[in-house]
Design brief:
Blueprint: H1 4-11, E1 19-23, H2 29-36, E2 40-45, H3 48-58, E3 64-68, E4 81-87, H4 89-98, E5 108-113, H5 117-126, E6 129-139, E7 142-151, H6 158-163, H7 165-170, H8 173-190, H9 197-215
Parallel strand pairs: 1-2, 1-4, 2-3, 4-5
Antiparallel strand pairs: 5-7, 6-7
Helix pairs in contact: 1-2, 4-5, 8-9
The structure holds S-adenosylmethionine.
Length: 217
């Protein structure tokens, strides 16, 4: 059984995708599920431990390529969909920048950064992609954003870059829970006596923003 997060990642793979790369595959559960769906898969990791796990778990399948490599370094040119999940936003941006030439054949990108999500959205919209779908979810008290980017053009507002256009439209239960947690945290931080004036202003601004998001529901 895949967790809610892993099955959400798999659910964003378009039906039309034929050759899918899972970069930083680690446990190999996502490629395994895709192989069961008869997809062709490239699974890679840049560390020897996870690479050995991938080899052990996946090598009995026909349509698999397992690779010990960093980012897009060994990516075949006929891959049409890349999955980059469970990595920091700056690691993802580094992979996209270093493997920039591969963006020409990557029709779909499924991306879930732990951090710097807004920066990743801005980079991809500047470089020929649009957001097709987004999933916001909470698993074991951690909030995740999973996005499907497709080739195309899109303009977003400042708020949409920050929170995600589909996430803002849907405002699901987990996102509302996230807003309440943010408000609670800001209130706690505002009680800190040594807070600078600038920081206090930033926190108050964020507080109003999160309140406004709640009012829109
Ligand atoms: C936290 S795991 C995420 C596993 C899986 N993608 C998921 O979402 O559950 C991150 C994995 O990415 C690998 N990794 C980190 N940087 C990488 C890079 N530049 N290229 C390939 N793999 C990388 C790590 O070795 C680790 O196995």
């Amino acid at each position: 059984m895949l967790s809610k997060r892993l099955s959400s990642i798999v659910s964003l793979v378009p039906k039309t995708a034929q050759f899918i790369a899972d970069i930083g595959s680690d446990h190999g559960l996502v490629p395994l599920e895709l192989l069961k769906q008869n997809k062709r898969v490239f699974a890679s990791d840049n560390k020897i431990g996870p690479y050995e796990i991938l080899n052990k778990c996946l090598s009995s399948y026909e349509n698999i390529m397992v690779s010990l490599s960093s980012g897009f370094d060994a990516l075949p040119n006929d891959v049409d969909t890349a999955i980059l999940t469970g990595l920091g936003g700056h690691v993802i941006l580094d992979i996209l920048n270093k493997g920039y030439m591969h963006l020409s054949h990557l029709e779909n990108l499924i991306i879930s950064p732990h951090s710097n999500i807004e920066e990743v959205r801005r980079f991809l919209l500047k470089n020929g992609y649009r957001i097709d779908q987004e999933i916001f979810l909470k698993e074991e008290d951690i909030y995740y954003v999973i996005m499907l980017f497709k080739k195309g053009h899109q303009e977003l507002s400042t708020l949409e870059y920050r929170f995600g256009p589909c996430i803002l439209k849907e405002k699901n239960e987990d996102f509302i829970d996230f807003i309440y947690k943010k408000l609670e945290n800001i209130q706690y931080l505002l009680n800190e006596k040594s807070l600078s004036k600038k920081r206090k202003e930033e926190l108050n601004k964020d507080y109003l923003l999160y309140k406004e998001l709640l009012n829109e529901i």
